[in-house]
Specification:
This protein is mainly alpha-helical. It has a domain at about 95-125. The protein contains 11 helices and no strands. The mean pLDDT is about 70.
């Protein structure tokens, strides 16, 4: 109760709100949108932009307005940076799972393949 009384007695100017309250005060301040600021202007002068952003916006909105580095890359560049298999390690288990007799029996096109190979006289119908 004493904590709430202290907050109610203080004047509600932005500078006193920031000094007396914790990080939750940033959530209640309205954000301002300036459509004249473009990405090109932001990238051209980072020092001037940082001071202008700090004075015009609240710290939370300035953090949210900046793009993350991963969002500025194109999709193909992002995909190429993903995890890639370095070595070629085939296994008979995977080969049988993909091209084996039971895999052919389950699929309609696989059954057609088995019939074609049977009619042709193949000894081994599949792996």
């Amino acid at each position: 109760m004493n904590r709430f009384a202290q907050i109610a007695q203080q004047p509600s100017t932005p500078s006193t709100m920031l000094s007396s309250r914790s990080f939750s005060s940033f959530l209640s301040t309205p954000t301002r949108f300036q459509p004249s600021r473009t990405l090109g202007a932001r990238l051209s002068s980072p020092a001037a932009t940082a001071t202008a952003t700090a004075t015009a916006f609240s710290p939370l909105s300035s953090l949210l307005s900046q793009k993350a580095p991963s969002q500025t890359r194109s999709f193909s560049a992002s995909a190429s940076l993903g995890v890639r298999r370095v070595t070629f390690r085939p296994s008979r288990r995977v080969q049988k799972r993909r091209h084996g007799y039971l895999a052919r029996k389950k699929d309609r096109n696989g059954r057609k393949t088995l019939i074609r190979r049977t009619l042709k006289g193949r000894k081994e119908l599949s792996w």
